[in-house]
Amino acid sequence: VSEEVDNDVRECAREALRLIDQYEGDVSKIKEGLVAPVRLLVDKPDLLTLSVYREGNHVGFSRYLYYDPGLAIIMAHLPKDSTIPVHDHGGWEALTPYRGLIRHSLYRRVDEDSVPGHARLEVIEERVLNPGDISLLVPPKDIHGWSALKDDTYTIAFLGAEFDQTRRYYQPDQESYLIRDQKSWRTGR
Ligand SMILES: [Fe+2]
């Protein structure tokens, strides 16, 4: 664990929590408010040295930049063309590249959620994000997936809560999902 407390990271975390609290579900307001604190992090050349080890969900390289029970700031590394599978959260997430470039898709469910293992998704936003560009997920619009368009792409994710132990991973083309419990997979619910 890093001994030093970085004031920019701490300020950014504090501001993110304040915005979430103040604007609740107002995506555009929260996003607007996050631009400056996120820019502060993206502009830090030494950000990686301030992070600590974390076991990744999808990627080999995952690091905590900040953690408290109400907010985790997580950095991940993706080689070019690697893809983060479409998943949901049950909580909010703000995502920006730190280095590189990503193609990010945000989805919402358009079926009734009545058939286990079945899900119909609709793309509500598809964007190419540069460092500092923010995508914000707020339930129920909290399903997303992305891919790295450049080598050595790093992302910074702000998560309102740790990932659920049980999460859904969607296959939008097949209108289906799988459930992952920690390390194992099962169908339906
Ligand atoms: Fe996510």
What does this structure look like?
It contains 2 helices and 13 strands. The longest helix is centred in the N-terminal third of the chain and has 17 residues, at 7-23. With 189 residues, the protein is α+β, with helices and mostly antiparallel strands. The protein is 17% helix and 41% strand. Strands 1-2-3-10-5-8 form a 6-stranded antiparallel β-sheet. It is globular. Fe (ii) ion binds next to loops. Fe (ii) ion (FE2) binds at residues 87, 89, 93, 144.
The major pleated sheet works out as: 6 strands, antiparallel
Determine the strand fraction and express it as a percent band. Answer: 35-45%
End-to-end separation: 37 Å
What ligands are attached or bound here? Answer: fe (ii) ion
Q: Give a count of the beta strands, DSSP E runs of length 2 or more.
A: 13
Count of helix runs:
2
- What's the helical proportion of residues? 10-25%
Order of helices and strands: HHEEEEEEEEEEEEE
Gross morphology: globular
Mean pLDDT value: 88
If you compute it from the alpha carbons, what radius of gyration comes out, rounded to the nearest whole angstrom? 16 Å
User: Would you identify the regions where 5 or more consecutive residues have pLDDT less than 50?
Assistant: none
User: By helix and strand content, what is the structural category?
Assistant: alpha+beta
The spatial strand order of the largest sheet comes to 1-2-3-10-5-8
